[in-house]
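FAQ: What does the model actually see?

It sees only this:
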Amino acid sequence: MSDTVILGRRQLFMLPTRFGLLFAALLVVQLLAAINYGNGLAYALTFLLGSLAVVSMLYTHRNLFRLRLAAGTCAPVFAGETASFRIHLTNDSDTPRFGVAVMHDKKEIARADIPARGSADVNLDVPAVKRGPLAMPAVTLITRFPLGLLYSWSRRVTLDQSCLVYPRPAEPTPLRARTEVSLEPATGIRAGGDDYIGAREFRPGDSPRHVDWKAVARGEAWRVKQFGGGYQATVWFDWDTLAGLDTETRLSVLARWVLDAEHDGMLYGLRLPQQALNPANGEAHQHECLKRLALFGLNP
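And it is asked to produce this:
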């Protein structure tokens, strides 16, 4: 299995369509009529239409021949969402390709025209049911170009591509903090009292000036921005603090805490059995935490 496949002769097949069978039957009837009446014009028309059918066989086959398929990137998603795999269709010949359909599970997911020496992208959407790596399913290419008399299709093509599926985040869950929760100096933050260090839930008596009004406008819960002098909140998310819950529930809760901590701008670390990730924040750190949760307990 490779991330690039080029369709060769042994990977392509061809059969007449229903319209093609009807067209063939019409030619037979027309030929019999020409023989019976000895009509030269009827012979000429029959052989002309038959020649068009033979030539269309070459064009139908060539519409897929040497077409190159390559797997594109697939952004990680959460369980329960839809993974979108991208497939690059590249035409290395000087002849454009028309009406190339991409099929999955006997359903057409996309149709593309590919210019000469050009390419086109199609997306394959697959439900992400459970966490972990999700392999790209096999696809089939089909074409009925140019006359619709015949259709050519390829073998099932499986590209070496997978999508990482994070655990489904749990509903907002109170943080079960251990003694490691503290305030530590944050590199690059100047001293003073104007440095943003995170957000917390709104409490009666809080100043309206510190309310995160943008989050409120989005329909989220009321939260208050916190500011400090050169410090940033640091917390450890520990597997052992969720004793009594099953594995998948623990992973969902930890995923929720990671997302909330990143949203609040906190420094956060992750402790799982036999592995730990030091406190940090940012998109790359969030991805690494969610990746470890997604792959936890799965065979490599």
